[in-house]
Amino acid sequence: MNASILVVDDERAIQDSLAWCLRTDGHEVQTAEDGEEAMAIMAGHDFDVVISDIIMPGVSGLDLLRKTRAVHPRTLVVLITAYATVETAVEALREGASDYVLKPFKFDDLRFRVQRLLEHRAAFQESALFRGAVERATIDKRLLGESAAMQEVRTQVAKAGPASSNVLITGESGTGKELVARAIHAASPRNAQAFVPINCGAIPELLLESQLFGHVRGAFTSAVQTSPGLFAAADHGTVFLDEISEMPVHVQVKLLRAIEEKQVWAVGSVKPLRVDIRIIASTNRDLDKEVEAGRFRDDLYYRLKVVQIALPPLRERREDIPLLIDHFIREFNLKLSRRVIGVDPDALRVLMGSPWKGNVRELEHVIESAMILTEGEVLTVADLPRGFADAPAPRSDSLRNVSRQSERQHIMAVLAQTQFDKREAARILGISLASLYRKLGELRISGSPSQD
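User: That's the sequence. What structure does it adopt?
Assistant: Structure tokens below.
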């Protein structure tokens, strides 16, 4: 598979060696000695692959990566460096690099990596499987989990969605409160209208009122033009007030009035503007205690929690962890151009035993980091961030000790561990070979290394 490749390195010897090596494979290769020259070349040429050193004078390899991703999102970028750290690797791949190579490297290894990236991209872009996976990644981003707690959440969302009542979502940080808010909006008659999320803790107190309700020109020093505000922008739609407990009391008063009168008063305005919005609010605090402490108005509290949905922390629904792991692996296979098929039994036990103080968001970041750093098709304990190896774990590999929701993930991991020796896998799982084959059929596992 021939491609156009740009090699960027401030060392002329590496430029020439890489160019010669890649040209012998039939690729069209150009070279640049720094990021600025590379950008000038790319202004008139769309490359399939850019191979760049990270540490260069002027425009660094990471800067070049960001500019390439912005202008040529289909271009594959491989970064090389002699000064590697875990942090640099994670940053590079999170910014969109397709691979990360350490100096000194073997030319044959780099050639193989380039060819593999090109083949992987071609296969995914041309297949219906890729298009379907992109669609599923969007759908699956919603409320994952088969635990009783998550089934109850989905039931509440289905019931609350079609109503027009305000909803209060409570739960720890990272539990997915905005996902629930979006799911409620999607299930409502307002789903064709705007969904406007507002983080009440991220907007400075002096600007929050203006951001929400708007202002007229000259209302304050920096008000050089009239702004309608986010409530007006969400007319006939849904406003999501994230971390509502961070809202100052004087803004709470104005919000209560807006809810009761269905109109907003822009800062400096002498007449109100009618708005038709549904409010969904969220908090990671105990609002009852906030009310008792005088930091949150009780009348606003009861206006907001017409329907209350409490999201469970991940540690209280551990049976959902394998399903979430599987989802994030599929998601990051697409994002990072990987072909990871699962986690091995030891890593699964570690992940199942983690306290997950950051909840689903923390799990997502852990899987992303592991997939960036792994060199294999199965995630191991060594791929996980430091500290995870000390997490408690279940005591047995026996299949009967793994929940129904984790069976597929667990069986795939054991198959990978045994190099798809089904007899050995059945022994580890504590079931007969016939039972294993039956499970493979039920769970739609091919039982071969080519399994996606």
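The CA atoms of residues 300 and 413 lie 50 Å apart.
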